[in-house]
């Protein structure tokens, strides 16, 4: 009997040992299966929360971007405010471009074109280059006087060329000769350009006078 009992004891315990791991694995699988829905729900909640935060930041950024165009509007207003000043400056510039124009009641000046003429010097080729400026009377406005002189520029050049061609080299030298030439040219131009009025050319200024 003792032998039978000792043989039966291992027969009862031997089949029960492999069953324990299977039961543990099944329990762990059931535990994982029961937790998996909660994990999925937590992931969805976190994803929704992140999307909500992103949308909130997006709307907040778009709301703050609204007033930004106000700066260009201010700049445009500033540019518009400067336009009258620019127009005023341009008007002043145009007024200052009037050639040699003086104030009312003051003399004004008019530049003649350069003239080159051969001098009356037998046996030698000598010529003179002269650039003169008229000193005009204030009794004629710069606009009217300049228009008259510009229209008669060919006549002015012709008169100067003829006058200079009648001079010798000695007649062009020295302070006295230059002053004599200024007085003679002033009388000649007044007679030819303004024959029906008082002398409007007060004098002639020499800008350049070169004899070669």
Description of the molecule:
- The chain is 60% helix and 14% strand.
- It folds into 2 domains: 16-62; 108-211, Band 7 domain (Tetrahydropterin Synthase, Chain A), CATH 3.30.479.
- Strands 1, 2, 3 and 4 form a 4-stranded antiparallel beta sheet that branches.
- The protein has 6 helices and 4 strands, in the order H-H-H-E-E-E-H-H-H-E.
- The longest helix is centred in the first third of the chain and has 46 residues, at 19-64.
Rounded to an integer in angstroms, the radius of gyration calculated over CA atoms is: 55 Å
Series of secondary-structure elements, N-terminal to C-terminal: HHHEEEHHHE
Total count of strands: 4
Q: What oligomeric state is this?
A: single chain
């Amino acid at each position: 009997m003792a032998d039978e009992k000792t043989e039966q004891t291992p027969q009862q315990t031997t089949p029960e040992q492999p069953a324990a791991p299977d039961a543990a694995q099944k329990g762990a699988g059931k535990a994982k299966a029961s937790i998996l829905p909660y994990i999925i729900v937590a992931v969805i909640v976190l994803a929704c929360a992140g999307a909500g935060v992103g949308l909130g930041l997006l709307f907040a950024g778009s709301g703050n971007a609204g007033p930004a165009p106000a700066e260009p509007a201010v700049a445009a207003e500033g540019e518009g405010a400067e336009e009258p000043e620019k127009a005023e400056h341009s008007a002043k510039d145009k007024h200052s471009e009037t050639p040699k124009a003086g104030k009312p009641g003051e003399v004004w000046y008019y530049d003649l074109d350069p003239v080159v003429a051969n001098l009356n010097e037998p046996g030698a080729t000598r010529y003179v280059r002269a650039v003169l400026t008229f000193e005009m009377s204030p009794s004629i406005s710069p606009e009217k006087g300049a228009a008259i002189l510009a229209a008669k520029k060919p006549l002015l050049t012709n008169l100067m060329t003829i006058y200079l061609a009648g001079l010798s080299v000695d007649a062009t030298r020295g302070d006295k000769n230059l002053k004599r030439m200024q007085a003679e040219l002033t009388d000649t131009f007044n007679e030819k350009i303004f024959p029906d009025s008082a002398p409007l050319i007060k004098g002639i200024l020499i800008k350049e006078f070169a004899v070669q």
